[in-house]
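User: Design a sequence. Structure:
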C-alpha cells in the first residue's frame, strides 16, 4: 500500500500547482500537487467516525508527514505549508460534506515568520 501511495505522490510532482477543489469518496485517495512535493489524502467513514488521513512528502526518499483529523459533518481542517517571504504558501482545506470529502488546494502569498 505504501508503494502505491508513494507512486501516486511522485506522479503528482509532475503536475503544476494550481488552485483546485476535488470531491473524494470513501476509500479513494486524492493526490494533490504541492509547491515542493505532493500530498495524498483519503478518508474512512466507519461507525467509529469519519477519519481523514493526509500524507505529505517531497519525494520517496525524504521523510513524510502524516496528519489525521476526525471530522463531523460540515467541519473543516486546514493544513498550510509556509513558503519563504514573497513565495507562495500552500493551503489544503479538507471539508466533510455528508459522506464525502472536499479537498481544496491553493497557493497564497506568505508573509514569512
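Assistant: Done.
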Amino acid at each position: 500500500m505504501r508503494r502505491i501511495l508513494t507512486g501516486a505522490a511522485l506522479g503528482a510532482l509532475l503536475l503544476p500547482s494550481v488552485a483546485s477543489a476535488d470531491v473524494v469518496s470513501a476509500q479513494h485517495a486524492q493526490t494533490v500537487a504541492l509547491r515542493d512535493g505532493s500530498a495524498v489524502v483519503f478518508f474512512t467513514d466507519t461507525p467509529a467516525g469519519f477519519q481523514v488521513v493526509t500524507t505529505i512528502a517531497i519525494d520517496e526518499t525524504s521523510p513524510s508527514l502524516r496528519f489525521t483529523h476526525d471530522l463531523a459533518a460540515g467541519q473543516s481542517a486546514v493544513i498550510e505549508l509556509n513558503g519563504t517571504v514573497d513565495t507562495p504558501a500552500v493551503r489544503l482545506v479538507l471539508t466533510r460534506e455528508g459522506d464525502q470529502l472536499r479537498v481544496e488546494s491553493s497557493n497564497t502569498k506568505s508573509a514569512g515568520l
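Residues 3 and 66 are 15 Å apart (CA to CA). The first strand starts at residue 20 and ends at 24.
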